[in-house]
Amino acid sequence: MDMDMDMSKQQQQEAGAASNKQRAVAAAAHVLAVAAVVLVVVWCVHFRGGVVLRSVQNKQLIFNLHPVLMVLGPIVLGGEAILSYRSLLLVPRAARKKAHMALHAAGLAAGVLGVYAVFKFHVESGIPNLYSLHSWVGIAAITLYAAQWAAGFLAFFFPGASPPARRRALLPWHAVAGVLVFALAVATAQLGFLEKLTFLQGPPLRLPKYGAEAMLVNFTALVVLLLGVAVVLATLNGSSYSAIV
Ligand code: HEM
Ligand code: HEM
């Protein structure tokens, strides 16, 4: 059964018209996603000295993994996962579903590793854990992201886990919760960029307020914000829902 059978002709036209605009928004999202990864890598590697998981002398390099993995993981791979139902239109739906699940799994794995890296940096540098608004919202975001993955897997993928009628009922909740979790990750990243740049502008480095690095960090955060807006806009219309989810 296909949802198109349940739609009037006019509804189908509206869905089609909306999906052209959505494709344009999704294309913008892909460009912003690539830009976000390039910018955060240039910042952490070129300006901040590189990324490592182990270092005896320079613990800051361990921190640098954090922004790279958080942007690459829940935001870029998570955003692409959300868009996969709308942008991989030439491949069968079952393949899009696998892409959605696998991209989210990769995004979650990168996110968990990124959070591990920043805890490791704190512990090895004698800095307290979980003192900031960013860290509290961040723990909520990564936990909810993992919960959303587990719920999505159990409801829509795990064989026979959920009968079609229940899947249909769950889908709008899954989509709304997914957009909210994604938006929370984008908001967390905004707080993170602001916090890190504020640290860098204080002692001992005292980076210039209008210097190249400050502009790069703020611009990277803006690109991440616009990416978030594009991904959410691309999903606002429910017309991608299939009858059998
Ligand atoms: C989805 C995105 C993100 C999540 C879920 C997240 C999560 C976290 C968590 C849980 C901590 C606490 C670590 C601890 O207490 O030991 C933390 C620390 C930190 N994060 Fe992020 N982060 C994200 C993105 C970013 C980004 C893009 C930056 C940009 C530089 C950033 C900068 C920081 C900084 C400076 C700290 C150390 C200070 C603090 O604990 O607030 N984060 N992050
Ligand atoms: C194993 C994990 C997951 C499975 C099996 C799964 C499955 C699905 C399915 C079947 C749809 C319906 C798509 C359609 O017919 O239009 C969907 C949509 C959606 N999912 Fe997931 N999902 C998973 C994880 C996640 C996660 C972790 C998030 C967010 C953090 C998420 C966010 C969304 C969103 C926003 C939509 C709506 C997409 C659209 O309207 O184009 N999903 N998912």
Descriptive account of the structure:
With 245 residues, the chain is mostly helical. The chain contains six helices and no strands. The protein has helices at residues 9-47, 60-87, 93-125, 133-157, 164-201, 212-235. Helix 1 (9-47) runs antiparallel to helix 6 (212-235) and helix 2 (60-87) packs antiparallel against helix 5 (164-201). The chain is globular and about 60 Å long. The structure holds protoporphyrin IX containing FE (HEM) (2 copies). Residues 66-67, 70-71, 74, 115, 118-119, 122, 129-130, 132, 134-135, 138-139, 141-142, 185, 188-189, 192-193, 195-196 line the site of one protoporphyrin IX containing FE (HEM).
Chain-wise SSE layout:
Blueprint: H1 9-47, H2 60-87, H3 93-125, H4 133-157, H5 164-201, H6 212-235
Bound molecules: protoporphyrin IX containing FE (2 copies).
Largest sheet: none
Class derived from helix and strand content: mainly alpha
* Helical segment count: 6
Q: How large, in whole angstroms, is the Cα Rg? A: 20 Å
Which regions have little confidence, pLDDT < 50, spanning 5+ residues?
1-18
Strand content: under 5%
- List of distinct ligands in this structure: protoporphyrin IX containing FE
Number of strands: 0
What is the N-to-C succession of helices and strands? HHHHHH
Q: Percentage of helical residues?
A: over 70%
Average pLDDT across residues?
90
Shape: globular
GO molecular function: metal ion binding; oxidoreductase activity
Membrane topology: Multi-pass membrane protein
Transmembrane segments: 24-48, 68-89, 101-119, 139-158, 170-194, 214-236
Domain Cytochrome b561: 28-236
